[in-house]
Design goal:
Length: 394
C-alpha cells in the first residue's frame, strides 16, 4: 500500500465509524478525505471539509460550501444538496488531479457518492472505485417524500453496485438481497467486512458512585431512544444515583431535549463529538450502552451493522438492544448484553436490573466480543488484491 493513494468520501458523523479513517491514515501515504454533513450537527467544530493527509499527518484542509437548509425542508432540498456535493467533489478532485495526477482508489460507503466516483474514474481522474455497501433503505415508508428519496437512492445503489471496480458488503444480508432481486449474479461471491472495533481496556475512573446509562448516535426516533424516556421515572425509583448521557445530534434532537427537560441534571446532552478520543472520555464511565432500535419493516437498521454497538463493545460496555440487527444474536450469545422486546413492558427494567446485578459477567462478554472485530485485523481485507499498477485482480 506504500504507493497507493486513497480518496475517501463519507458523511458526518460516520467519517471515522469503526476507526475506518484512522485505518486509512495509518496505512496509506496519501489520503484525500471529503466529509459532508447530512443532518445538522450542533458542534463547535467546522464541518463540510476536504482534508489531505500525508504520511499519517494532516497537511491541509479546505472548507466546503454547505447549502443552509432548515431540517423541516431537508428532504425537499435533497436534489439540490446532492448536486452541490457532486459539483464540489468533481471540482476539487479535478484540481488535485491537475496537480498530482490520478489517485489510486476512490472509496465510499454511499451509493450516490460512489456513482460520482465512477464518473471520475471514467474521466481518468481516479484509477479504481471501491463501494463498501453499508445500507439498504426499504421502500415501504409511510411518508411519501421519504419513499421518494429512498426510491432515488436505490437507483444510485443499483448503478454503483454494478459499475464499481470492487464491491464489499457490511453483512451477508445486504449481499443476498441484491442477488435475490437480480442486481448481482447469484453465482459470484463478494467480500463481507463488518464495521470494526478498537478494543482496549479502560478503567472506570469515576468514583462518585453513580450508575451511568448512555446512548451514542444520530438523534432520530427510529433509534428507539424514546424507550428510555418512557421508563425514566421507574428507573429513578430504584436507581436514585442514575445519570443519563446522550452523545449525538440530529433531526429529533429538540424532541428528546423537550422530553428530558423536566429531569434537570439527571440527563446530559453532549451534542455531536467529532473526535473518537472525546467519545471515549465520556463513554468509559458508562455501565450500560443503549441501542434500542424500533422494530419495523421500514427501519433501515434491520440491514446495517450497528456502529454504536461496536463503539460500546470496544470499551467493554454491556449493551441493551433489540433484535432488529443480526448482530444482536452475537450480543446474546457472547453475554455482551441483553436483547429485549421493544414492545414488552417491563423487559427494559429487567434488562437494566440484570446487567447491574451481573456487571462483571456482561463487561467481560462485551470485552471479548470487541476483540473479535479489531479494525486493524479486519480492514486489510477491504483492499486485498489491489495493485497500484493493475487495480484489483479478478
Amino acid at each position: 500500500m506504500k504507493k497507493t493513494s486513497v480518496l475517501y468520501v463519507n458523511f458526518a458523523p460516520y467519517d471515522n465509524v469503526g476507526r475506518i479513517l484512522d485505518y486509512l491514515v495509518e496505512n496509506f501515504p496519501l489520503v484525500v478525505h471529503f466529509s459532508f454533513d447530512f443532518h445538522k450537527m450542533k458542534t463547535k467544530s467546522v464541518t463540510n471539509l476536504l482534508k489531505i493527509y500525508e504520511d499519517g499527518k494532516l497537511k491541509s484542509q479546505v472548507q466546503l460550501f454547505k447549502l443552509p437548509t432548515p431540517e423541516a425542508v431537508l428532504f425537499v432540498s435533497l436534489p439540490f444538496i446532492a448536486v452541490l456535493i457532486g459539483v464540489q467533489l468533481i471540482w476539487h478532485v479535478f484540481k488535485i488531479y491537475k496537480r498530482i495526477g490520478r489517485l489510486s482508489i476512490y472509496f465510499s460507503v454511499n451509493a450516490f457518492t460512489v456513482w460520482i466516483g465512477n464518473l471520475l474514474r471514467n474521466a481518468g481522474m481516479v484509477e479504481k472505485t471501491l463501494f463498501w455497501v453499508w445500507d439498504y433503505y426499504p421502500p415501504g415508508y409511510s411518508d411519501w417524500y421519504i419513499r421518494l428519496a429512498r426510491w432515488g437512492y436505490w437507483k444510485f445503489d443499483r448503478w454503483s453496485t454494478v459499475s464499481s471496480d470492487r464491491v464489499v458488503f457490511l453483512n451477508q444480508k445486504l449481499e443476498e438481497l441484491r442477488k435475490e432481486i437480480g442486481v448481482l449474479p447469484k453465482e459470484k461471491n463478494y467480500p463481507v467486512i463488518p464495521i470494526g472495533t478498537n478494543p482496549r481496556t479502560l478503567v472506570k475512573i469515576s468514583n462518585d458512585g453513580r450508575v451511568r446509562m448512555g446512548h451514542l448516535g444520530v438523534l432520530k426516533k427510529g433509534q428507539g431512544l424514546d424507550l428510555l424516556f418512557d421508563h425514566l421515572k421507574e428507573f429513578i425509583s430504584f436507581i436514585p444515583s442514575l445519570k443519563i448521557e446522550i452523545i449525538g445530534s440530529g433531526p429529533d434532537e429538540k424532541h428528546f431535549k423537550e422530553r428530558g427537560a423536566s429531569y434537570g441534571e439527571l440527563i446530559k446532552f453532549h451534542g455531536f463529538l467529532e473526535k473518537m478520543d472525546e467519545l471515549d472520555q465520556v463513554m468509559q464511565h458508562w455501565d450500560i450502552g443503549l441501542a434500542t432500535y424500533i422494530p419495523g419493516k421500514s427501519n433501515e437498521s434491520h440491514w446495517t451493522d450497528p456502529s454504536k454497538i461496536k463503539a460500546y463493545i470496544s470499551l467493554g460496555i454491556p449493551v441493551i438492544t433489540t433484535n432488529v440487527t443480526d448482530f444482536s444474536k452475537e450480543i446474546e450469545q457472547e453475554k455482551a448484553g441483553i436483547v429485549l422486546d421493544y414492545f414488552k413492558h417491563g423487559d427494559f427494567i429487567k434488562a437494566v436490573q440484570n446487567i447491574l446485578s451481573n456487571r462483571e459477567l456482561y463487561r467481560r462478554g462485551s470485552e471479548n466480543l470487541g476483540k473479535k472485530y479489531h479494525y486493524k485485523t479486519i480492514y486489510p481485507a477491504l483492499f486485498s488484491g489491489f495493485s497500484p499498477k493493475n487495480g484489483w485482480l479478478r
